[in-house]
Amino acid sequence: MTRLQEMDDEVGAMGLKDVINRNLDRLTTEIIPTLRQVADEQLTQVRAKLDHFNRALADKALPKERKKRVGHISLETKAKEASQGKAAASKAKTVPKDSRKSSQRPKAD
Q1: DSSP state of 62
Q2: Fewer CB under 10 Å: which end of the chain, C or N?
Q3: How many CB atoms neighbour CB 21 within 10 A?
Q4: What are phi and psi for residue 41, nearest 5 degrees?
C-alpha cells in the first residue's frame, strides 16, 4: 500500500483536518529538527573547509621572510594591547585624591 493510499484511508476514518494536524505535528517535531541538525553539521563542515582553504591561500601568498616578520609584529601588537589594557584597568580603579576633592560640594553655611 502506498503512502497516498494510507492517507486516503486515514482521511476516511479520521477526517481531513485530523490527518493534516497529525502530519503537521510530525513535521514540526521530527522532520524539521532533523533537517536543521543536518544543515548545521554541513554548514560547520563548509566553514572548516573554507577556513582551511583561506589559510592555505594566505600561506602561499606570503613569502617566508615576511611571515616571520608578520608573526613578530603580531606578537608585539598583542603585548602592547595587553599592557595598555592593564594600565587602563589600574587607572580606572584608582581615583586621584585631587579629583575626589573637586567633586565634593561646598557646605552651606
Answers
A1: S
A2: C
A3: 12
A4: -65, -45
